[in-house]
Amino acid sequence: MSLVQYENFSPFVEFLGVTIVHQGEDQVQTSLPSQPVLQNRKGDIHGGVIATLLDTTLGMAARGEMDQQAASSTLSLTVNFLSPARGELLCSARCVRKGRSIRFVEGQITDKDGEVVATAVATFKVFSANRASAC
After folding, report:
1. How wide is the angle at C-alpha 39 spanned by C-alphas 38 and 42, nearest 5°?
2. Global pTM?
3. Which of 51, 61, 122, 133 lies 20 to 30 Å (CA to CA) from residue 28?
4. Tens digit of pLDDT for each residue in 3-24?
5. Every domain of the chain and the residues it spans
């Protein structure tokens, strides 16, 4: 089966400027450019943006080998913020366990210097193309 190649994100994720750097069967890397609109009052990337980047990238890793029309829903997402995030960010995610409909995924965000600024673990419910269109 061919890999899902994401060409379109949700309008919100597109607004953020997320792009795909690498996509493998169970691994995905995305990047987020630095933009003033994404900053909090201290000049760091807002925590909600960090959580969104992780949720988006981990969700893509959960659906890695599924059909383009497949969907996923986040059942749980735990984010650990390790240090302030500034500048362009790289998010890496990998699916660590696949069930028929439940996937366990982990990931991290690094800054331009390679410092880990946040980590996450998540559980996703995945839906095949037929089920996704019925939802």
Report:
1. 175
2. 0.88
3. 133
4. 444 455 788 888 899 999 998 8
5. 11-134
